[in-house]
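Supplementary notes (optional reading)

For those who missed the lab, this is the record we used. Protein: Ion-translocating oxidoreductase complex subunit A. Length: 197 residues.
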Amino acid sequence: MKEIIVIMMTVILVDNFVLSQFLGICPFLGVSKKMDSATGMGLAVTFVMVLATAATWPIQRFLLDTYNIGYLQTVVFILVIASLVQLVEMTLKKYMPPLYKSLGVFLPLITTNCAVLGVTIMNIDDELTYVQSLFNAAGAGIGFLLAMVLFAGLRGKLEDCKLVPVSFQGIPITLITASILSLSFMGFSGVVEGLFA
């Protein structure tokens, strides 16, 4: 159990996919203007990450590794992720139309979101067990959600701020804010190691 907690805390805080590894930047910058869109995207990515890990880990171990065709990993994983995103998209369109409309073009972009592909490949490369991989994916999704919600809150405050110089308004202040948020997560680097010391 201790190992699972360390895996999750590490991937949520220390090795956050968006703020430390800079994966999934497109939806991070594109959908974080409103809190409800950011939350919806974070939950959708978390769901897809866990589902993709649940599907790709056995495919890697029992199909690609068994038949020595590991070189097809990226292609197979992208196909699996694309199928899962279509499932999520159809579900949201049917049961949550407002969220579906607010996510817009960014929902299909989960298919090519490098954070989703990254977590599935890193689970294999780090030789995690199936259960560890699922918790790692869930933690990566929660970390993505946390980054999205924090950044959406900051962007909301920036839009109301009248002190931002004209030359910094828009994309420049957004990128500066993202970099400062990223730096703040570096402070967690010693916390996880010291949790169970």
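If you only remember one thing from this example: The radius of gyration is 18 Å.
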